[in-house]
């Protein structure tokens, strides 16, 4: 009958409704699960972003620290080079002074030897000593009769009066000496 047909149809719709409710419930569970996964993913992403930002900050700080240390080392290197250059200049100046003093000592020694020879009655000829200083490396040259070995730990002039010349080059000013001794009592030193 029509009533029974309606009951059957209503039963089918009831079953469909229950199935639909079950599907909706399952979908809701899936949605909740997916929302949880999304929240977890967001939290993980936030942690990763924070870690990246922290790593970048640490990297920038490390880079700044390395640059500061590099600048400090470069400044120390420049200071060391400057100190070395200053010490080399001071050393060269001291060497120039020492060599000039050695030359003056040898010059006066030669004068004394000439005076002794004059007092002993030995006539001597003129003795000329010239000292020339110029920029560049140190060294010396000699010519004439009385000059002996040179400027190792100083300058020594050998015995035996006669005319001679001494040339000395080292960074500094120019000096020249002319020494004249004679068999008479006259003696002149010009500097």
Give the H and E element order. Answer: HEEEE
Strand arrangement, largest sheet?
1-2
Shape: rod-shaped
Low-confidence stretches: 124-191
Strand content: 5-15%
- Number of E-state strands: 4
The number of helical runs is 1
Helix-strand category:
mainly alpha
Distance between the termini: 154 Å
Report the radius of gyration as a whole number of Å: 53 Å
Could you give a short account of the major beta sheet? 2 strands, antiparallel
- The average pLDDT value, as a whole number, equals 73
Helical content band:
55-70%
Mind explaining what this structure looks like?
Keywords: Coiled coil, Intermediate filament, Keratin. Residues 17-97 form a coiled coil. By secondary structure, this protein is mainly alpha-helical. It has one helix and four strands, in the order αββββ. It has one helix at 2-119, and strands at 139-144, 164-169, 178-181, 187-190. The strands form two sheets. The chain has a two-stranded antiparallel ribbon. It has a two-stranded antiparallel ribbon with strand order 3-4. A hairpin with a 5-residue loop joins β3 (178-181) and β4. The termini are far apart.
């Amino acid at each position: 009958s029509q009533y029974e047909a309606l009951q059957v149809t209503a039963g089918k719709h009831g079953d469909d409704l229950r199935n639909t409710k079950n599907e909706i419930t399952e979908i809701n569970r899936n949605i909740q699960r997916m929302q949880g996964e999304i929240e977890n993913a967001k939290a993980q992403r936030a942690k990763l972003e924070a870690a990246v930002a922290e790593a970048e900050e640490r990297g920038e700080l490390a880079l700044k620290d390395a640059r500061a240390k590099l600048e400090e080392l470069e400044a120390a290197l420049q200071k060391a080079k400057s100190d070395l250059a200053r010490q080399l200049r001071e050393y060269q100046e001291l060497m120039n002074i020492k060599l000039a003093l050695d030359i003056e000592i040898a010059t006066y020694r030669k004068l004394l030897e000439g005076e002794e020879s004059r007092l002993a009655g030995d006539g001597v000829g003129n003795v000329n000593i010239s000292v020339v200083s110029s920029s560049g490396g140190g060294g010396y040259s000699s010519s004439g009769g009385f000059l002996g070995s040179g400027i190792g730990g100083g300058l020594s002039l050998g015995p035996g009066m006669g005319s001679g010349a001494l040339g000395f080059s080292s960074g500094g000013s120019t000096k020249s000496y002319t020494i004249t001794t004679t068999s008479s009592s006259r003696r002149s030193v010009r500097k």
